[in-house]
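Input:
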Amino acid sequence: MSTSIQRYTARERSNHWVVAIAFILAALSGLALFHPAFFFLTQLFGGGPWTRILHPFIGAVMALFFIAMAARFWKLNRITPADRQWMARIKDVLCNRDQGLPELGKYNGGQKYLFWIMVLCMLLLLASGIVIWQPWFAPYFPIWLLRVAVVLHALAAWILILGIVVHVYAAIWVRGTIRAMTRGTVSEAWAKHHHRAWYREMTGK
Amino acid sequence: MALQSLDIKARSATTTPSPQARGAIPVAKLIDISKCIGCKACQVACMEWNDLRDEIGSNVGIYDNPRDLSDQSWTVMRFSEVEVQQGRLEWLIRKDGCMHCADPGCLKACPAPGAIVKYANGIVDFHEENCIGCGYCLTGCPFDIPRFSKKDRKAYKCTLCSDRVAVGLEPACVKICPTGAIVFGSKEDMIHHAEGRIADLKERGYANAALYDPQGVGGTHVMYVLQHGDQPELYAKLPKDPSVSPLVSLWKGVAKPLMSLGIGLAVFAGFFHFVSAGPKEVEEEEERS
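Output:
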C-alpha cells in the first residue's frame, strides 16, 4: 500500500473551493446575461434583476479569494526550461505517452501557463467589472470606457471559462488528482510519476 | 412603457422573429429647429402626459433646464450659441431625446428578453417591467439617451408617446408645440414636409439646410430639419454620422454566438479526448515501486 504525500493544506483547499464555487455562480449568472440562450439561468438566481444584482458581488468574492490564492502559489508557477521541454511534448502528454518526460516540480508547464492566463483574466474581469457595475461605479465612467469594458469583460470571462474547462477536465483525466483538492493528499506513485522533482523534495528520496 | 396595443417587430435578447403578419406604416416626428423658439412647452407636455416630475435643479447660468435628460426628463431643450458667420450670433435650440433608430443600438445591447422593443411603426420602447438594470443600453445608444432611475434601477427614455400613438393621437410634445416646429405623421409624409421646409430655408440663405435622418443607424423615427445640415455638431453635439459602436456590434454580433459555441466545443473536446485517449493512470508497478 503506497503512502500519501500532502499536496494542499486545509486552508489552501478551502481557499480553492471558495473560488471554485464563486466561479460556478459567476459563470452561470454571467452567461445568463451574455446570450439569450442562457437567459433561463437567471431563474437559478431569482430572476433577471436579482441575477444582475448578485453577479458582481459573486465576481468580487471570486476575484478577492483568487488573488489570495494566486499570491500563495505565485512563486511555484515560475516557468522553467523543464516546463518548456514538457510543453514541447504536449502531444505525447495528451496521448498518455509519459515516458521520458522531464522531471517537474509541483506544477507542470500546462498548469503554470493556465495559472498565468487565469491571473490575467481575473484582473481584467475585476477591472472591467468595476467599470460596468451598476449602479455603484458605472455612472462615474464615460460611455466609451463602458463599451471597452463590456467587451473586455466578455472576452476575459470567455477565456477564463475555457481555461476552467481545461482545468476541470485535466483533474478528471489525470487519475488520482482530485483527492489533492478534496483530501489534500496524493499517492506517492502519483507524485513520482507526474511531479518527480517535487516528490524528491517532499520525501528526500 | 408597456401600456400599448402596437405590434412588436423586434424584441431585445430574442433569437426568433416576432410576429410579422400585420404591417404598419412607419411613423416619424419631425423637429424643425428653425421654427423652435425654445419655450419648453414640449418638456412640460411630456411631464404632464407621462406624470413625470424632475427634481428642481439650480440655475447654472444657461437656459438648459433641466440640465440634462433623466429618468424624469425624457426630453430637454439644448441651447447652443454659435457664430457660423462671423458677427452673426445664432441661437440653435435642439429638443433632445430618443431618436427612435430604425436599427436601435439599445435593443441590440439589451440582454433581457423583451425589455426593449421596436414596434412595427418604428417606435422604440422600453418595457421597464422586463428591465434588469444592467445599463447595457447605455453602451448601445449612439445618442447618449437612456437614463437610470435611482428609485427602481430601470432605464427610461422617450416613448414617442407610444400609448397615444396606439390610439391615433400625436405625441404630447407635438400636440402642444405653439409654433408647429414639431410635427408628426407617417415617415414618408414627414420627409416630404421637411423637403418643403428645407427649400424655404435655402431660399432664405441657409444654403446647407438639410434633413437629419442618419443612415448609420438605419434612419431615425425622430428627424430634425437643421439650418446648418453640414454641421450637426453645432446643435449641442448632435453626432454627424452616428452608428452603433463597433465594440457593441462585435460583442452582440459575432462574439455572442461564436463564444458560446466555443465553450460548448471545449466541453465536447474534453469528452471525446477521454473516450479516445482514456484516463491518465499511474501504472500498478510504479505504484508499488
